[in-house]
Structures
1.
Amino acid sequence: MTSHSAEIPGIDQLFKDLEHPNPYIQTEAFLALVRHWPDESLPKLLELLDQENITLRRASVRAIGAFGEMSLIPLALKFRQSSDATVRASCIKAYAQVASNYCGISFPEEAINALKCALVDDSPVVALAAVMALGQVGIQALPLLKEICRGANPALAVAGVNAIVEIKDPSITCFLQDILQSKTTDSYVKETIESALNRADLLQV
């Protein structure tokens, strides 16, 4: 009779499976890591965000997203410690994965502060990733997203509008209409708001 411990897949093999080109095998590997080796594997996955191997780095982002609450503060630390924009973007993308996988999860202050820092990052890739992550966070991120929509950076404002319209909150339509009426709002942002409001109307039907 096989013992229970023998049925648990080895951590080394699971990390090898993360490098597999088949996304299904990757997914099975990181779900097994979460189930059987959470404390041992999360620090290793955070280290893999420094990898130049794009497949492995992306798999690591997806994997970290499956760890939920336990990954939020470690990601904030990783983000703040990294001087590499690609690593910082990966941390923020992992936040988006967590929020998507664990709908309604509450982000601690350290995580929200990391997202705030990302919004003013020197890298536009990091900043845009932060807007998308905040859209996944949802209601908790509404104040930040509203600031972005009103902000002076048109690219971020457009991303903010597209993110905020996906959140179900009665204040959003009026908020976007107010920005639309403002003379200082960028024309491209206004076009995006008009399109977003049409989508919002369709979603509410």
2.
Amino acid sequence: MLASERQSRIVDEVTRRGSVRVAVLSDIFGVSDMTIRRDLDVLAGQGRLAKVHGGATAPASMSTNEPGFEAKWVHEQDEKAAIAAEAARLVEPGMAIGLSAGTTTWALAQRLTDTVDLTVVTNSMQVAQVFQGAKASGRTVILTGGVRTPSDALVGPVAVAALRQLHLDVLFLGVHGMTERAGFSTPNLLEADVNRAFVEAAHQLVVLADHTKWGQVGLSSIAPLEAADIVITDRGLNSMAQHRMAELVGDLRIVETAATPT
């Protein structure tokens, strides 16, 4: 088992139990206590759990915690790049696409700067800046208005009203978390409203979510898992989650990255 897969499953165990001891995790995964402690150090550094004496617990206020853009971008960069590369294959000249706020959609935007005759609708200041100054012909970028969040998304009734007037070929949606019960979710109530308006405006929904998003639950749900036409994630998603996602979504795509073995 790769370290990334084991770490994702550790998060699943902590989320399910609320807290778990190192010795229990060592027995579950058949590795040493030292290996588990190193895993917990990595996961605590990512904010995915909280280390305590002898084990780990779910972090406080998980459902409302909203890191800034820079804080999120430093994690899983290889995975996000691979997901973005796969997503870019779905974009053709002449399309009208939506790009929600997020670091993976930002990575996708960087791969679309040379695509001609493209209309991009986004509520992300970071995504809009990627296209600023790019010279592809026939491109239109529409930035919704709204109130700025810590992750540089524009949210609120102005953004929602703008999206309700539009019709998009495909929406590329970044999410804070995904679980079978909560579906795709975000910690920001107003951003959830905007993302739901994005979903309603789009003919096709493509969710971009690296493996760390599985098991995370934001305060507000955007859509159930089965609403996604395509979900693009990476090989770090544990096998049980892959199996369940494949049952629920229209098309689950697993991209390969340069993962580090145990």
3.
Amino acid sequence: MKIKRGVIRKLIILLLLAGVACFIAIIGAASMVRISASGRTYSDVSAIPYRRVGIVLGCSRILPCGRNNLFFQLRVAAAADLFKAHKVDYLLVSGDNQTKDYDEATDLKDCLVHSGVPPEKIYCDFAGFRTLDSVVRAKEVFGLTEMTIISQEFHNQRAIYLARHEGIDAIGFNAEEVDSHNSFGTKLREQLARVKTVLDVYLLRTRPAFLGPKIPIGEIPQPPNKK
């Protein structure tokens, strides 16, 4: 059956319009996230301000191919450096734990302890299924109104965008970047993740899969007694 030229022309126009819309959405979301995090990320441990708690955003320790995940290793190194420099007193490790054999938070804690961070200074959030879940739960479950987010810079920017929307005073400590050969796919997915994040915030109003009872982190400083 022959397709009329007019129909083909309309399909091409629709595809072109859809492509333009996608391009605008990607550029717009990326700009919104980047502007929101402007001046709030640090790569020098000596320059970053003190925060009582740092939250380490999880990822898989081992890649599907069996190799170590460089993103994971570099986040652990950054978190350990931040703690040892006394720029945070506690670390909250947040990650996916949907199955018995996959536990990002425990993997992060084990590696941080191996790196010299005392286990009693590390708290686990086992329901950080997405960045949004990790950020919102940091406030709603762990009571944080300010924090340092620890991940690669592109990820920190998106997490800070979410945190500011939730009324959290967040800054980011940038873990070392992974080389382009090993990060190309992740950086590509990040552009789509930013679009999804903006949609979650302004259109879908997405909330975490789970909240739960309050879990205070460490000893909460008390205001001095007034005489």
4.
Amino acid sequence: MTTRSVVNAEQLDFDTPGRRDYHVKLEHTTIWAHHLIPITVIVGPNAKPGRGLVAIGSTHGDELEGPVAVKHLLREIRTDDVPGRIILIPVLNPMAFKANRRETPDDGVNFNRAFPGDPKGSVTVRLADMVTRFIFPQVHVVLDIHAGGEAARFPATSNVHLMKDPVQRKAMEETARGFGTKFIMQYQNVTPGLLTGLAEDLGKISVDTEMGWGRAVQAAGVSMSRQGVLTPAVRQGQLRGDPPANRHYAPSEQRLVDTSHPDSHRLAAFEGHFEPLVGLGQAVKTGRRVGWLHDFNRLDDPPMELPAPHDGDILGQAWGAKVIQGQGITQVGKPVEWAR
């Protein structure tokens, strides 16, 4: 069993060659205790300031493919094979992870809306501040592995924002393709406080994913997540050897699809029950009926028809049948061109 050193964030060593396994302390809100965040730092002889890769699991506590994949990588990556810098964080938000919840139970905050954080804020906001001040300056590649949890389900996707800088855009798309997902989703960039949004604003190669749903562990999602960390680690010079064999979708099969326009999303007009009529990843034409929304308080009324807003692919659906008014219940991604 690995013995982890219990430290404050200021004590993390990102420069000395070798491997260090830490538990970073984050003071508990109500009792005399600390939350412990597992962080492993592997530094090679050629590590350069500001260059490295971080792989993150459990930004949300009910999304499990990331924690499982990064936990495997803790055993698989050999220190002697790391010339640069690799940081592995299997469970970044232990409070939400232990509660098996999307939000942090201590303060009710969605960690992926809390960046850049505040050292004097609530516990989730302080956690975001720790990542911003101590982790981001050490790396140029940020991989944040998500899944749908209990909110939504997706075909496995790796996700990017549309960047104005053509060099950064191409690097992010190429890194996203390394996961081997069929769909690379280009999504909206207006939500405040995103981990990846801040990382890309800082000039990082910033990619996140959707690798499963339902508080379950999807085998393909774990495999893609592992592949998606190792591939850029090699290509960016942080890990020796060849990229892992692609066990999933070849580049010729991958599609860049955009969901950034509000019209891509169908919202529930009323509280009800969602009935999907097409499968995840299925291609649809404009106007095709993709689902029904039922109101069981009005049993004799017909359900509301949900037509596809445009040609594209089904990239997301509500996971639970019961939905609240205004909830996103289906999204259709529109194919777009890759960066050149």
